[in-house]
Amino acid sequence: MFKKLKYDHYGYLFVAPFIIGFLIFGLYPVLNTVFLSFTNRTLMARTYEITWFKNFQLLFADKTFLTAVTNTWELWLMNFIPQMGIAFLLSVFFTNLRLKIKGVGVWRMIFYMPNLMMASAIAALFFSLFSYYGPVNQFIVRSGFVAEAIDFIRKPSWMRGLVVFIQWWMWFGQTTILLMAAMTAIPVSLYEAALVDGAGSLQMFLHITLPLIKPVMIYILVTSLVGGMQMFDIPYLLTDGRGSPGNSILTNTINMYMKFHSSKGHIGAASAVGLVVFLMTSIVALLIFFLLREKHDEPVKNGNREK
Amino acid sequence: MNLSNHTLTNIQRFFVYLFLVVLVVITLIPVWLLIVNATRSTLEIQQGISLLPSKYLMTNYRILLSKGLDLPLGFMNSLTIAVLTTVITVYFSMLTAYGLVVYNFKGRKTLYNLMLVLVMIPMQLSIIGFYQWMSKLGLTDSYASLILPGIASAGSVFFAKQYLESIMIQDLIDAGRIDGASELSIFHKIMLPIAVPGMFTLGIFAFVASWNNFFNAFILITTRNKYTLPMLIQTLRGDVYRHEYGAIYLGLAASVVPIIIIYFLFSRYIVNGISMGAVKE
């Protein structure tokens, strides 16, 4: 490989723009956020002091912050579980050789569409559909389901339900496509061998399908978690942008934005929110990825590398 | 025995199709209502739900403009940002991925692992540090702060790397070297033309992500005539429009319909592209 060696240093030239871009737009902003979180810096004043852990002390004593963290986890979990469930069901239907469902490509295409919609437009759409004089109220009142219009926008459980529904609506199609790709990448010969050995379909699912699609499931879990912890557009635009009613849809990022956008622009305090959630999410995501991945390293290498 | 098995399959199939149809209705109804309501007058909208379009599209458009919402400008702003971001993201992701695939330089594995970790980290949460740094550089309220980060998009590099590995032909590179072409011109003149389908898929995702991005623009852009479409949408909820439902729906439809058109034109690229970045070592 003498010939190859001669050219290898060109690699640096090709990856240099990425590294420079990453240092400027990725790494430095993170370090800057860490630094700001140790200060009482605002957008209004030029001077600031290093206050070390004061922002964090205030944060953990702040009920609103804890509410936002709990809310974000709950809103994410409540959409992730049904999202995974429906996607599982759909990919099993679509790949089932006995059912032979027709038009799989078309179904999938339709289910994926909401994922490309502008989340802020969708939130605004649902806001106006569910407003007091909006179409949903007209429909249920006129058709006699309820006697009086429901003030959805002021009901915490309705708004939480809507955030969960919109998130589910936007993401179940993508999850289906990923799971299906993983399932179809499993060699049919594995199932045939299992049939010869007398395995039932449940056994095959538990011992062949599940282990082999595990890497993709971990990918879905981790990326969904990372996205979910940063949830902003939908809860922000669904109500008044402060997580109303009663902080029921206040998420981490809305909380951070409110500190940033407060009258003084407390970027020190906002950075502290960002940093705590950043660390929490990264640690959980990396733990999930590295802990779950190791166990089944071998079967992964043999079959399931779909493109 | 055989017959009953067959019947059972048919019954199951019926329920599966029923389930699929229900899901399709749930998926499409919100978007359809949005588009239909954009063509209906506020009065019609208040009179009830309809699944059929009406004829007030232009009236709604005029109301929207008369209230000071410059939809065409917002559209152009979003388009400018999305196109430039797409070009930058696709080019630099391909460049980086090519470097990772073709050359076995020291630190390659580390860089690759860094990208893997970057995909699993919520980078958006460093937006405050990003904002303050950009304002030091004088880049706040400028599109540069929205476009340039595309140079270092870890997810796109992943996709590009997977794709390049699947189409890489070492002989072509060697042939180029024998002809005396420089490494960069081999990338530009030999590799990029072969990689067009992959770049196209990558480009669609980059475009849609930029087009839909609300949060970063919301933090970084302050001048009204630089507002992007999602930022204009956010202003639609204000008091000025409270009773102009038709106009509101039109504003929302204008931001969603272009993406629907792109999707129906290129859905094959998109659906196949989704699973490509997903499985990695």
Task: Report on the architecture of this protein.
The complex is a heterodimer of chains A (307) and B (281). The longest helix of chain A is centred in the N-terminal third of the chain and has 33 residues, at 63-95. Chain A is mainly α. Chain A is 71% helix and 0% strand. Chain A folds into two domains: 1-37; 53-302, MetI-like (MetI-like fold, Orthogonal Bundle). Chain A contains 14 helices and no strands. Chain A has helices spanning 2-7, 10-37, 54-60, 63-95, 104-112, 119-129, 135-142, 156-184, 188-196, 201-229, 233-238, 252-260, 267-295, 297-302. Residues 296-307 of chain A have low confidence and may be disordered. The radius of gyration of chain A is 24 Å and the shape is globular. Chain B is an all-alpha fold. Chain B folds into two domains: 2-63; 70-236, MetI-like fold. In chain B, 73% of the residues lie in helices and 0% in strands. Chain B contains 14 helices and no strands. In chain B, helix 1 (2-37) packs across helix 14. Chain B is globular, with a radius of gyration of 24 Å. Chain B starts with a helix and ends in a 7-residue tail after the last helix. The relative contact order of chain B is 0.14. The chains are: A mainly alpha (307), B mainly alpha (281). The interface between A and B is large, with 105 and 94 residues.
